[in-house]
Design brief:
alpha/beta, seven-stranded mixed sheet, six-stranded antiparallel sheet, 17 helices, 18 strands, about 45% helix, elongated
Amino acid sequence: MKAGAADYLEKSQLTAPLLERSIRYAMERKQTEQKIRQQAALLDIATDAIFVHDLDDPVLFWNKAAEKLYGWQKAEAIGKKTQELWQEKNESLLQTALKHLIQHGSWEGELHQRTKLGQDIIVQSRWTLVKDFGNRPQSILVVNTDITQKKQLEAQFLRAQRLESIGTLASGIAHDLNNVLAPIMMTAQLLELHIHDERSRRLLPILLANAKRGADLVNQVLSFTRGLEGERTLLQLKHLIIEIQQIIKETFPKFIEVTSQIPPNLWNVTGDATQLHQVLMNLCVNARDAMPNSGRLKILAENLVIDENYTKMHLDAQVGSYVVITVSDTGIGIPSEILDRIFEPFFTTKEVGKGTGLGLSTVLGIVKSHGGFINVYSEPRRGTQFKVYLPAQQTTETIEEAEQSFPQGNRELILVVDDEVAIRDITKTSLESHNYQAITASDGIEAIALYAEHRDEISLVLTDMAMPAMDGMTTIRTLQKINPKVKIIAISGLATTDKVDAAYDIGIKAFLAKPYTANQLLQTISVVKNGE
């Protein structure tokens, strides 16, 4: 019997019924063994990790999916205790689960484990208590489903929702900040005309420059949170690098040494200054985080002509002229096993709460939208080097022209519509200082009443797009019903592409984004007034 016989019969006691029963028993046993093998084969096909261990913990059964999930072969796992096969993150939960299993016969929950290869996983675990013929607990059947990727996707979705909420909040704050900055900028320009004290005249440009910088920062936030599209212009990256270097020196820890190297004949590029500012800032912040104690951060710019031979070695490159910006650090470096993943959205090696995993994916998206590409070189404990390649225009730098003189009016009457008192007052004062007349309205309803009363005298309407009671779009449509030929300039502190397009679609003549200078206001009015 030990050798494998189905039964044992003595010839002296052999009878027909006994033989028949023995044969039937042997056939049933064979069928049962075959069924057990089939079921075991099915368990091996299953994608869930299925194993059985007795109450003292040694593993009795281990399927193929368990081998794949935990990294232990069946022969290695059988006979081992589960605590030898993986590490549980929450031992107290296991004790609670075991008590529940003994009382109720089953348990289900999420477990955080670390596998043989050191990989952190999350499993949906289902335990069933297996009893013997005497109804006594004998072993535990465990079915573990790997839900690590599902949990990561859920976390990414929640993170994306949180970022969307932050974007909405930032947009609202940006709108309010633009309303604050607009009167500051216009007041500073007016004061320049009326103040003759030399010391005060030296201070006013500082006030104006910082207000403009504030407006640029607001637009930078909007470009990231709401996809505000900046204007593509011919840029000299030297100025951008110098500005970034100044910000870094003021805000980064003093133990990080910052240097830059820019050739005097650096070519121009066509691009969005705000977005390229964001690219460089992201790379510099990553470099800072890679040097928690000390280190050197270097920003290098150079001209490069790429030939066909180079394009064969770099798939993203095309034949032509490029400006190459290199941001290098002497930090901890990037391990080779994750170097290929650093541009993936939501992939981050930083602690929870210290990184969104969107920085480098945003950088890559902006660079590609500019027709460029990125190369990364890194060695653990020796630092990282990012090279950003942007298509170049082989032109010399042009010095920006000073702002043109303020265009003067001819006593035309302009209706100013804005719910912000400061903006209404400073806009009215600016217009009156340059030979215009102005009347103001605090919302769309008051604007329509004033326009109906002074229709023949009003030459042009300046209206905010976001107002209580009646918004800008409704105000514009109502004014157009009163006078289809009315000239309207729309103004907004949140000038998204969709909003600008929608305003032009209904027939406005121009669009001004807050905050604007007195010169921008007067130039726009002059263009619209003259029908250019």
